[in-house]
From TrEMBL:
It comes from Roseburia intestinalis. It catalyses: Hydrolysis of terminal non-reducing alpha-L-arabinofuranoside residues in alpha-L-arabinosides. Keywords: Carbohydrate metabolism, Glycosidase, Hydrolase. The keyword Hydrolase applies. This is non-reducing end alpha-L-arabinofuranosidase. The keyword RNA-binding does not apply. Gene3D superfamilies: Glycosidases, Golgi alpha-mannosidase II. SMART domains: Alpha-L-AF_C. Homohexamer; trimer of dimers. Its EC number is 3.2.1.55. Pfam families: Alpha-L-AF_C (PF06964), ASD1_dom (PF22848).
Amino acid sequence: MEKEAKITVHPSFEIGEISPRLFSTFLEPIGTMVNGTMYNPKHPTADEQGFRKDVIEALKSTDMPAIRLPGGNFVSAWDWKDSIGPKEQRKVHLDPAWYQYITNEVGHDEYLQWAEKVEAEPMYTINLGTGGIRDAMDIVEYTNHEGGSWWSDLRKKNGHEKPYGVKVWYLGNEMDGPWQIGSWDKDPRGYGVLANETSKVMKWIDPTIETAVCASSAIFMDHYPEWEETVLEQCYDSVDYLSMHHYHSAPPGDIKALLGGSLYYEEFIDTEAALCDVIAAKRRSPKKMMLSFDEYGAMIRPNAELHPGYGVYNMTRAHYRFDPDRKYVLHDPDQMPDRKHPGGDMLQMLAMVSIQMAFLRHADRVKIACMTGGLGALCSSDHDHVWRSASYYALSQLMEYAKGTSMQTSVECETYDMPGYAIDDTSQYRGKENVPYVDSASAWDRENGRLNLFVLNRNEESEYSLTVDVRGFEGYRFVKQFEMYTDDLEASSSFDNPSLVLPKEKEDILFADGRLTTSLKPLSWNVLCFEKEEE
């Protein structure tokens, strides 16, 4: 028997303005992501700098707003000054974060010039592990100052006459993590003071920039959220964003846990927003700190052996083990391995959009979000080709239709309970009750008279008869419903077969007197579009 669900959206209940940066991506030179996907001078499409033009053109065809680069853990040992100027004079370094050689063929200028080519705003992470205030001053001067100083004139000499104009700067990466080179795990006050002084002087060099300070790297850290409370007490007045990361894991076969993971993101957001507001109150500050969720993802991971008594988070022990057999790797851009992720295209896409809808529901505080696999979602690739997966279509739809103001969506539907589970010592989740099978968010582009509703059916077995009540939006008419669905959850697109899961316009939809009646297939992604009729 078909089940029923109802969604109500009303113009009186706004959440906040949606930032275009909410659908940004993240780039770090791990494996062949840079040396292979981004850069391969031997590729048939390589341009004069060695960048793959097939990747560039594929990304240019999207509306990707911004990209956070060049990392990631890698930046905490990276000296950007060794990556500029003539390539034959650049230094090759070891990257202890990922046990790889960094040749610096792709350096500071190349990262920013590649962002120009794909027409996305670069958001830059600086080294506050082994780097410090002097390096931060120099990189902003080199990157953003008009000219007349040594560093800005060196940029011109290196071939970029105009300033790059980078606006968002991240003050290190995951600086609380014991895995981080130069970690501030044991000294949050010290990191907060450094972040304050660094942000202050960076803004003295370029007062137009914004800075983001690191929060705890995971909700599982045993010092969360006290660590960032201490940090913010030192630097609240000088920074603009709290930088947050989370990777949600679910065991194989547990689709409900995978697609219910967005609840843990919302819990994280609510906690950090409240913490920021407490610091603002303590400092008598009128500023409301915004959030940057600049690394996130969802994945299927098999359960690992647990070690009772180790505590909630065992990453410290893991990163104080030193493997004498581990070797450094030089990644050859001409030797890209095939990548196959478990779960097929559809589950990856559904997990992604469930998180992005959570960000939309918190658009008043979350102003930046960088999907870690976002480049692959927008442009799947192998050694030779590029193509589009299911994630490309869903992410492109969010970029196109999630504009304006995020609106509250009231959902009435069947629910399920999600038992707590532990993937390993580092990823342990409390159970959740009354998780709605139908997940939703909405965006009202008031200026252009458009209302768009995003709907995910988390149910693996049941179709829902859906009623949508938009009577409060007087004069709006229903335009179309996009539906993405497949019977084969293991299907993965490829260059030879890129059209396994495509959005299709749904038919047989009733709309009258501000009420719409449609249906939601099991494990489907849906976009419902309304427009105001011309008067």
